[in-house]
Amino acid sequence: MSENRTMTTARRLFAAIAPLSKADMPTIVCVRPSPVNEGRPSDRGWNAGFSRGTIGPMKVQRRILWALIAAALAAALACSRPGRGVIILCAGDSITEQGYPRYLRAALRADGVRARVLNFGRSGNTSAEYLAFLEENKARLASERPDIVLVELGTNDVRVDGDRVTGADFERNLRAIVAVFEGFRTRAGTPPAVFLASVPPVPAGTPFPFGPDSGKRIVAEINPAVRAVCRGLGTGFVDNHRLFEASPDLLPGVHPSSKGYEAMAANWYAAIRDRVRRAPR
Question: What is the CATH number for 172?
Protein backbone atom coordinates (compact mmCIF):
# COMPACT_ATOMS: atom_id res chain seq x y z
CA MET A 1 0.00 0.00 0.00
CA SER A 2 1.49 3.36 -1.01
CA GLU A 3 1.60 6.53 1.08
CA ASN A 4 -1.14 8.08 -1.09
CA ARG A 5 -3.43 5.12 -0.54
CA THR A 6 -2.74 5.30 3.20
CA MET A 7 -3.75 8.96 3.34
CA THR A 8 -6.87 8.23 1.27
CA THR A 9 -7.83 5.52 3.76
CA ALA A 10 -7.32 7.94 6.67
CA ARG A 11 -9.47 10.60 4.99
CA ARG A 12 -12.26 8.09 4.43
CA LEU A 13 -12.12 7.04 8.06
CA PHE A 14 -12.32 10.67 9.15
CA ALA A 15 -15.23 11.33 6.77
CA ALA A 16 -17.07 8.39 8.29
CA ILE A 17 -16.53 9.59 11.84
CA ALA A 18 -16.78 13.37 11.51
CA PRO A 19 -20.57 13.55 10.82
CA LEU A 20 -21.37 11.80 14.06
CA SER A 21 -23.26 14.18 16.33
CA LYS A 22 -22.84 14.51 20.03
CA ALA A 23 -26.00 12.51 20.53
CA ASP A 24 -24.59 9.65 18.44
CA MET A 25 -21.52 9.25 20.60
CA PRO A 26 -21.70 7.02 23.67
CA THR A 27 -21.00 8.34 27.12
CA ILE A 28 -18.20 6.23 28.51
CA VAL A 29 -18.24 5.66 32.23
CA CYS A 30 -14.85 5.36 33.85
CA VAL A 31 -13.97 4.56 37.43
CA ARG A 32 -11.20 6.41 39.22
CA PRO A 33 -9.91 6.25 42.78
CA SER A 34 -11.67 8.55 45.22
CA PRO A 35 -9.23 10.69 47.18
CA VAL A 36 -11.53 10.30 50.22
CA ASN A 37 -11.34 6.53 50.44
CA GLU A 38 -8.15 5.81 48.43
CA GLY A 39 -6.17 3.09 50.02
CA ARG A 40 -8.63 2.54 52.89
CA PRO A 41 -10.44 -0.73 53.59
CA SER A 42 -14.21 -0.59 53.11
CA ASP A 43 -17.21 -2.86 53.42
CA ARG A 44 -19.29 -1.17 50.69
CA GLY A 45 -18.66 -3.67 47.88
CA TRP A 46 -16.25 -4.06 44.95
CA ASN A 47 -16.26 -0.39 44.05
CA ALA A 48 -15.65 0.92 47.53
CA GLY A 49 -13.14 3.73 47.49
CA PHE A 50 -13.91 4.74 43.88
CA SER A 51 -16.00 7.46 42.32
CA ARG A 52 -17.63 7.64 38.91
CA GLY A 53 -16.79 9.98 36.04
CA THR A 54 -17.36 10.33 32.30
CA ILE A 55 -15.30 10.88 29.19
CA GLY A 56 -16.91 13.52 26.97
CA PRO A 57 -18.32 12.56 23.54
CA MET A 58 -15.84 14.71 21.57
CA LYS A 59 -12.91 13.16 23.39
CA VAL A 60 -14.26 9.70 22.52
CA GLN A 61 -14.63 10.78 18.88
CA ARG A 62 -11.03 11.95 18.71
CA ARG A 63 -9.76 8.80 20.36
CA ILE A 64 -11.65 6.56 17.93
CA LEU A 65 -10.40 8.59 14.97
CA TRP A 66 -6.77 8.37 16.00
CA ALA A 67 -7.08 4.67 16.80
CA LEU A 68 -8.47 3.98 13.32
CA ILE A 69 -5.79 6.09 11.64
CA ALA A 70 -3.10 4.29 13.62
CA ALA A 71 -4.54 0.93 12.58
CA ALA A 72 -4.61 2.02 8.91
CA LEU A 73 -1.00 3.19 9.04
CA ALA A 74 0.11 -0.03 10.72
CA ALA A 75 -1.62 -2.06 8.02
CA ALA A 76 0.00 0.07 5.31
CA LEU A 77 3.46 -0.48 6.77
CA ALA A 78 2.86 -4.21 6.98
CA CYS A 79 1.77 -4.33 3.35
CA SER A 80 4.71 -2.25 2.15
CA ARG A 81 7.31 -4.60 3.62
CA PRO A 82 7.50 -7.79 1.55
CA GLY A 83 10.01 -9.16 4.03
CA ARG A 84 12.02 -11.16 1.55
CA GLY A 85 14.22 -8.60 -0.18
CA VAL A 86 15.06 -8.78 -3.87
CA ILE A 87 14.33 -12.20 -5.40
CA ILE A 88 16.75 -13.56 -8.01
CA LEU A 89 16.03 -16.81 -9.86
CA CYS A 90 19.03 -18.56 -11.43
CA ALA A 91 18.19 -20.91 -14.33
CA GLY A 92 20.60 -23.14 -16.21
CA ASP A 93 22.53 -26.39 -16.25
CA SER A 94 25.21 -27.77 -13.88
CA ILE A 95 27.29 -24.58 -14.18
CA THR A 96 24.38 -22.91 -12.39
CA GLU A 97 23.37 -25.76 -10.10
CA GLN A 98 26.88 -26.47 -8.82
CA GLY A 99 28.30 -23.01 -8.86
CA TYR A 100 27.78 -19.28 -8.95
CA PRO A 101 24.45 -18.68 -7.07
CA ARG A 102 26.01 -19.16 -3.62
CA TYR A 103 28.78 -16.69 -4.49
CA LEU A 104 26.22 -14.22 -5.82
CA ARG A 105 24.27 -14.53 -2.56
CA ALA A 106 27.45 -13.84 -0.60
CA ALA A 107 28.29 -10.79 -2.74
CA LEU A 108 24.81 -9.34 -2.21
CA ARG A 109 25.03 -9.94 1.53
CA ALA A 110 28.45 -8.26 1.66
CA ASP A 111 26.86 -5.20 0.02
CA GLY A 112 24.12 -5.15 2.63
CA VAL A 113 21.48 -6.24 0.12
CA ARG A 114 18.69 -8.38 1.49
CA ALA A 115 18.09 -11.02 -1.18
CA ARG A 116 16.80 -14.49 -1.92
CA VAL A 117 18.89 -16.21 -4.58
CA LEU A 118 16.99 -19.24 -5.89
CA ASN A 119 19.05 -21.94 -7.60
CA PHE A 120 17.00 -23.70 -10.26
CA GLY A 121 19.96 -25.11 -12.17
CA ARG A 122 19.52 -28.59 -13.64
CA SER A 123 22.66 -30.64 -14.13
CA GLY A 124 23.03 -32.13 -17.63
CA ASN A 125 20.11 -30.19 -19.12
CA THR A 126 20.17 -29.03 -22.69
CA SER A 127 18.03 -26.05 -23.69
CA ALA A 128 15.29 -28.47 -24.81
CA GLU A 129 15.34 -30.34 -21.50
CA TYR A 130 15.28 -27.16 -19.46
CA LEU A 131 12.36 -25.83 -21.48
CA ALA A 132 10.45 -29.05 -20.73
CA PHE A 133 11.27 -28.72 -17.03
CA LEU A 134 10.14 -25.10 -17.06
CA GLU A 135 6.83 -25.83 -18.75
CA GLU A 136 6.11 -28.65 -16.32
CA ASN A 137 7.01 -26.56 -13.24
CA LYS A 138 5.89 -23.15 -14.44
CA ALA A 139 3.37 -22.53 -11.65
CA ARG A 140 5.83 -23.48 -8.90
CA LEU A 141 8.58 -21.22 -10.22
CA ALA A 142 6.17 -18.36 -10.95
CA SER A 143 4.94 -18.50 -7.34
CA GLU A 144 8.42 -17.37 -6.23
CA ARG A 145 7.67 -13.94 -7.78
CA PRO A 146 11.27 -13.28 -8.93
CA ASP A 147 12.38 -9.72 -9.61
CA ILE A 148 15.32 -10.86 -11.73
CA VAL A 149 15.90 -14.05 -13.75
CA LEU A 150 19.40 -15.14 -14.81
CA VAL A 151 19.66 -17.73 -17.60
CA GLU A 152 22.74 -19.55 -18.84
CA LEU A 153 22.24 -22.57 -21.09
CA GLY A 154 23.99 -24.08 -24.11
CA THR A 155 26.98 -26.05 -22.88
CA ASN A 156 25.17 -29.40 -23.02
CA ASP A 157 23.71 -28.52 -26.43
CA VAL A 158 27.19 -28.94 -27.99
CA ARG A 159 27.73 -32.47 -26.72
CA VAL A 160 28.43 -35.11 -29.35
CA ASP A 161 26.14 -37.79 -27.91
CA GLY A 162 22.34 -38.00 -28.10
CA ASP A 163 21.94 -34.65 -26.30
CA ARG A 164 23.28 -32.64 -29.22
CA VAL A 165 21.00 -29.72 -30.18
CA THR A 166 21.35 -27.76 -33.41
CA GLY A 167 22.05 -24.04 -33.31
CA ALA A 168 18.63 -23.20 -34.78
CA ASP A 169 16.81 -25.39 -32.24
CA PHE A 170 18.85 -23.88 -29.42
CA GLU A 171 17.78 -20.38 -30.40
CA ARG A 172 14.11 -21.41 -30.60
CA ASN A 173 14.33 -23.08 -27.19
CA LEU A 174 15.98 -20.04 -25.65
CA ARG A 175 13.28 -17.72 -27.01
CA ALA A 176 10.61 -20.00 -25.57
CA ILE A 177 12.37 -20.06 -22.19
CA VAL A 178 12.50 -16.27 -22.08
CA ALA A 179 8.80 -16.11 -23.01
CA VAL A 180 7.92 -18.34 -20.05
CA PHE A 181 9.93 -16.23 -17.62
CA GLU A 182 8.51 -12.98 -18.98
CA GLY A 183 5.05 -14.38 -18.25
CA PHE A 184 5.90 -14.42 -14.54
CA ARG A 185 4.95 -11.47 -12.35
CA THR A 186 6.88 -9.82 -9.54
CA ARG A 187 5.26 -8.79 -6.26
CA ALA A 188 4.65 -5.41 -7.90
CA GLY A 189 2.74 -7.08 -10.74
CA THR A 190 5.36 -6.42 -13.43
CA PRO A 191 7.39 -8.91 -15.52
CA PRO A 192 10.80 -9.81 -14.07
CA ALA A 193 13.98 -8.51 -15.64
CA VAL A 194 15.54 -11.37 -17.64
CA PHE A 195 19.29 -11.59 -18.32
CA LEU A 196 20.96 -14.12 -20.63
CA ALA A 197 24.63 -15.08 -20.50
CA SER A 198 27.02 -16.26 -23.17
CA VAL A 199 28.42 -19.74 -22.51
CA PRO A 200 32.01 -20.27 -21.30
CA PRO A 201 34.47 -21.92 -23.71
CA VAL A 202 34.83 -25.70 -23.85
CA PRO A 203 38.58 -26.20 -23.35
CA ALA A 204 40.47 -28.25 -25.90
CA GLY A 205 40.87 -31.85 -24.86
CA THR A 206 37.65 -31.96 -22.82
CA PRO A 207 36.65 -35.64 -22.78
CA PHE A 208 33.48 -37.27 -24.08
CA PRO A 209 30.58 -36.48 -24.25
CA PHE A 210 32.25 -33.38 -25.69
CA GLY A 211 34.30 -33.47 -28.86
CA PRO A 212 36.73 -31.38 -30.90
CA ASP A 213 33.86 -29.42 -32.48
CA SER A 214 32.12 -28.54 -29.19
CA GLY A 215 34.24 -25.48 -28.51
CA LYS A 216 33.87 -24.30 -32.10
CA ARG A 217 30.08 -24.58 -31.90
CA ILE A 218 30.05 -22.44 -28.76
CA VAL A 219 31.71 -19.64 -30.71
CA ALA A 220 29.98 -20.12 -34.07
CA GLU A 221 26.42 -21.10 -33.03
CA ILE A 222 25.52 -20.92 -29.35
CA ASN A 223 26.80 -17.52 -28.26
CA PRO A 224 25.69 -15.74 -31.46
CA ALA A 225 22.21 -17.20 -30.83
CA VAL A 226 22.26 -15.87 -27.25
CA ARG A 227 23.13 -12.40 -28.52
CA ALA A 228 20.43 -12.59 -31.20
CA VAL A 229 17.77 -13.48 -28.62
CA CYS A 230 18.92 -10.61 -26.39
CA ARG A 231 18.68 -8.15 -29.27
CA GLY A 232 15.35 -9.48 -30.47
CA LEU A 233 13.63 -9.66 -27.08
CA GLY A 234 15.38 -6.81 -25.30
CA THR A 235 16.78 -8.88 -22.46
CA GLY A 236 19.97 -8.07 -20.59
CA PHE A 237 23.23 -9.69 -21.70
CA VAL A 238 26.16 -10.92 -19.60
CA ASP A 239 29.37 -12.00 -21.34
CA ASN A 240 30.63 -14.98 -19.36
CA HIS A 241 32.46 -16.36 -22.40
CA ARG A 242 34.74 -13.35 -22.51
CA LEU A 243 35.34 -13.61 -18.75
CA PHE A 244 36.81 -17.11 -19.05
CA GLU A 245 38.49 -16.48 -22.39
CA ALA A 246 40.49 -13.73 -20.67
CA SER A 247 41.26 -15.92 -17.62
CA PRO A 248 41.49 -19.55 -18.83
CA ASP A 249 43.02 -20.62 -15.51
CA LEU A 250 39.55 -20.16 -13.97
CA LEU A 251 38.12 -22.82 -16.29
CA PRO A 252 39.97 -26.15 -15.88
CA GLY A 253 37.22 -28.05 -17.73
CA VAL A 254 33.62 -27.39 -18.71
CA HIS A 255 33.05 -26.39 -15.09
CA PRO A 256 34.82 -23.38 -13.56
CA SER A 257 37.00 -23.62 -10.47
CA SER A 258 35.80 -22.13 -7.18
CA LYS A 259 37.56 -18.90 -8.09
CA GLY A 260 35.93 -19.11 -11.51
CA TYR A 261 32.45 -19.39 -10.02
CA GLU A 262 33.22 -16.45 -7.76
CA ALA A 263 34.34 -14.37 -10.76
CA MET A 264 31.22 -15.48 -12.63
CA ALA A 265 29.01 -14.31 -9.76
CA ALA A 266 30.79 -10.94 -9.79
CA ASN A 267 30.16 -10.70 -13.55
CA TRP A 268 26.44 -11.36 -13.06
CA TYR A 269 26.26 -8.90 -10.18
CA ALA A 270 27.91 -6.12 -12.18
CA ALA A 271 25.23 -6.56 -14.86
CA ILE A 272 22.23 -6.61 -12.51
CA ARG A 273 23.37 -4.10 -9.88
CA ASP A 274 21.07 -1.31 -11.06
CA ARG A 275 18.08 -3.67 -11.15
CA VAL A 276 18.90 -4.90 -7.67
CA ARG A 277 18.87 -1.32 -6.36
CA ARG A 278 15.45 -0.68 -7.92
CA ALA A 279 13.86 -3.90 -6.70
CA PRO A 280 11.76 -3.94 -3.49
CA ARG A 281 13.70 -4.67 -0.31
Answer: 3.40.50.1110
